[in-house]
Design a protein that fits this description.
about 400 residues; mainly alpha; Farnesyl Diphosphate Synthase; 17 helices
């Protein structure tokens, strides 16, 4: 796909040539800043505790429309949830419930982690629907492409599966993506090939060839990622591999929602996919290092170089938000804010989790950028996970 390759090349040039400059602090640094940060942490913690206690004490309340939950969401991410709800067609929570129901019905023994991994992609595709004023709904394509993540990626990442078996699978999978109908060798292949068939229900191959070209792009990225497991790649090779795989992933999301992309849409969705891929690599830094799965963030031991690449990711994330392909409306402002805050939390949580791979000076600099210090946000995240575990039966009952 010529337009995609051209855009990826431009992002590689941007990455290699961007001036780092000084960090820009959104919150003016002063002697009072630590107190303001702690006060905000205290307020968020208190609100979270109140909301979770309320859910526990009133398990039949409608969680999707609970105003206290919406306020917590607004406080954490800085968006106007009521305004977004009024502007959005369809039901975000209903789509989530439909996806979980459908996945559990089809694969009753699939673990929750794999379903959540797929659900994250559903939410990205729902966001694309919102950005382009489409109803938020679970289409065949959204379900199928999202399920291809746990069905294929987890298999290709499995260290117990031989390289020969992985190569056989990706060869056969490519043939199916190209439109050939071949008999599956096992239940896994049958599931994966059925997902391709679901996509074919929504998009005719003759009318929408770009949709299937985008699926082949992400497939090529998966094939290339095998090299990260079995070959010693240069930093330049890792850079291109990461950009192509990450960009292709969200470009495929966009094609499976929109059918076609113009140049501005291609530029944004490629860049957003690259940023998400690099943020995931940063999150998985220690795990990938243990498995000798090399990425930009663990291919060198220099603390300074790792910080430079992290700064570049921050700059890239900020840059792509200037490219959001929406008309200037209040909804665009809220969507941009949501994307910005989500990416910032993703990156900063990863930095704090791997703080031993950074200098104390770096952690101090990043803390100055935050409305809540890194360690306090980490505590909020841990508290949220603890409550989610406790409230799981209630939430499961509501989405059953």
């Amino acid at each position: 796909m010529e337009m995609f390759n051209k855009v990826v090349g431009s992002y590689i040039d941007y990455w290699q040539n961007q001036p780092l400059g000084d960090l820009q602090y959104q919150h003016k640094s002063s002697l009072l800043q630590p107190f303001r940060q702690y006060y905000r942490y205290f307020k968020l913690r208190k609100r979270m505790e109140q909301v979770c206690h309320k859910i526990k004490e009133n398990p039949t309340n409608d969680l999707a429309n609970d105003r206290e939950i919406q306020k917590l969401f607004e406080s954490w991410l800085g968006v106007d949830s009521l305004m977004m709800r009024d502007e959005i067609q369809g039901d975000y929570s209903k789509c989530t419930k439909s996806f979980i129901d459908k996945a559990k019905k089809r694969w009753p023994h699939m673990d929750d982690e794999s379903i959540f991994q797929a659900l994250r992609n559903v939410w990205i595709m729902n966001t694309i629907q919102i950005m382009h004023h489409q109803p938020v709904e679970l289409t065949n394509s959204i379900f199928a492409y999202s399920m291809l993540y746990p069905l294929t990626d987890n298999y290709l990442d499995d260290e117990t599966v031989s390289l020969a078996d992985k190569r056989l699978f990706v060869t056969r999978f490519r043939k199916r993506l190209e439109g050939l109908y071949i008999n599956p060798l096992n239940n896994r292949e049958e599931d994966i090939f059925n997902m391709v068939s679901l996509i074919e229900r929504d998009f005719n191959r003759v009318c929408h060839p770009e949709v299937f070209e985008s699926l082949l792009l992400i497939h090529e990225g998966q094939c290339m990622s095998l090299k990260q497991q079995y070959e010693n790649l240069t930093e330049q090779q890792l850079l291109r591999l990461s950009f192509e795989k990450g960009g292709a992933s969200v470009v495929a999301d966009a094609y499976l929602v929109l059918g076609k992309l113009n140049e501005s849409q291609m530029r944004f969705y490629t860049g957003y996919g690259i940023a998400l891929q690099l943020a995931d690599d940063l999150q998985d830094l220690k795990e990938d290092l243990m498995n000798s799965h090399y990425t930009l963030y663990n291919c060198h031991s220099s603390v300074e170089k790792r910080w430079q690449d992290t700064r570049k990711l921050m700059n890239l994330s900020e840059f792509i938000l200037t490219l959001v392909p929406m008309q200037e409306t209040p909804l665009k402002k809220q969507v941009s804010k949501l994307l910005e805050r989500s990416m910032q939390l993703l990156i900063c949580d990863a930095i704090y989790e791997h703080r031993l791979f950074y200098s104390q000076k770096t952690i101090g600099k990043i803390n100055k950028m935050q409305s809540v210090r890194l360690e306090h946000h980490w505590k909020l995240k841990q508290l949220g996970e603890k409550w989610m575990e406790e409230l799981k039966p209630i939430i499961a009952q509501q989405i059953a």
